[in-house]
Write a structure and sequence with these properties.
Elements: H1 12-29, H2 33-40, H3 42-63, E1 66-68, E2 73-75, H4 77-96, H5 108-127, H6 131-148, H7 156-187, H8 192-195, H9 206-223, H10 231-238, H11 241-247, H12 250-263, H13 271-292, H14 297-316, H15 321-348, H16 363-366, H17 368-382, H18 388-400, H19 406-431, H20 450-468, H21 471-482
Helix pairs in contact: 1-2, 1-3, 1-5, 3-4, 4-5, 4-11, 4-12, 4-15, 5-6, 5-12, 6-7, 6-12, 7-9, 7-10, 9-12, 10-11, 10-14, 11-15, 12-15, 13-14, 13-19, 14-15, 14-18, 15-17, 15-18, 15-20, 15-21, 17-19, 17-20, 18-20
Amino acid sequence: MAGLNLNPGLLGPELVFLILVVILFGAALIKKPKLIGAILALCPLAALISAWWSWASLPGLVASPSLQFFGAYRVDGLSQFFKILICLGYLVAWFNSLKLPSLKADQKPDYYLFLTLSAFGLILLSSAAELVAVYLAMELSSYSLYVLIPKRSHSKAAAEAGLKYILFGAAATALALYGLSLVIASQQVTFISKLSGLDWSLASNPLAVVGLSLFLGGLFFKLALFPFHFWCPDVYQGAGNETAAFVATLPKLGAIVVLIRLAAPLSPGLELTDILAFLAAASITYGNLCALAQKDLKRMLGFSSVAHAGYILVGLVSGSPEGLAASAFYAMAYVLMNLLCFWVICRLSTDGRNLTYQDLNGLSARSPLLALALLAAAFSLVGLPPTVGFIGKLWLITSAWGHGYDWLVIVVCLNTAIAIFYYLSLVRHAYTEEDLPAQGAQSLSLDGSLISSLGALVLGLLVVLLGVLPGPIWSAVLQASQSLFQ
């Protein structure tokens, strides 16, 4: 931490996205459709280059992390793993938003600019190793979403969703900033690596525990963890389908990677760890019970994400490298299966409307491939083999068992049984219900393009193959987690 120690060769994703943001900013200022179309085509190329750059530097960084910018920026195996996920998620989001039926044509350059700016902030968040850097990167990614969520033409619900997200986001920001000030006052340091060696018991250092708890509240807001979840179902329902797909997946990655870094110094039995365990149980139960009563698919997925936020915390309370690796692996599973769900929703709702369970009726006859993709996503969200959701939950409960939180494992298993009902309702409507639209309702027009089929096929195969062959990724994530304890 003595010097700048700048190594541009390890900052490929950051540099690529920074250049792309500058180019898109210029594109938003011009009014030439052909030139804008050519510039927007750079987005998937940038995502692929960034993902490859992260993957290429991953093996060496797992064993030997690089600290840059006076130790405030840590490029290691964990950061590169999450950057790969962010880049791939951004790529899917770009393909999802090619048509943007709920957005005016002249707003598309602005839309892609803020989409890219949010992804850039998340990439920075993946490597932030100091609390002030975490806060700034978190705000960079969040401010862009404040603009994206209301961008749905002629929709009062989108404006309401944007307002709710801004108000709740401002409250969470104030909470995190106040908590940061308490941590600085009590511990006199903001570097996560140095915080790990300090005392975090409530009896001897109450100010530090309260400060870190408040700072974590800002991360819980992005993760939509109970009781910081109130914005989530309304924002999912009000935002456009393509925007909801982005908000539901990528911002969660930024929160998870920071939580993994902050959870490394925690051990079972600490008051802060017990709070995380309680919040995990409450979030899992509340999210699943509320999802049971939903009819709007995006609102159901909103409450579902509240439950999955609790699942991710299960790995953090174990205080072991295996637990942190399980949370990182499940973050990947969560992103893949939700992207697949939203991919199907966007392909069905070509006019941008919100879908209900009834809109899935007869999907197996109308589009067998999309129905099969939805089946894979639903099975993975439940946690059924041989999907990535099953192996992810298996590693989560294995890491928590025997570390003083066996009761939490029981809560996870019981809630998995509850979740079967509403997740498999997706499959029931797609495969067993006849397509009989209500009187006066407009019929859905499916997107049968090649991109639609290829996207469903690739994401569906990833959900299944990573459940069958998870070994290589698990080994890399476990090694990256072990480096946090050194």
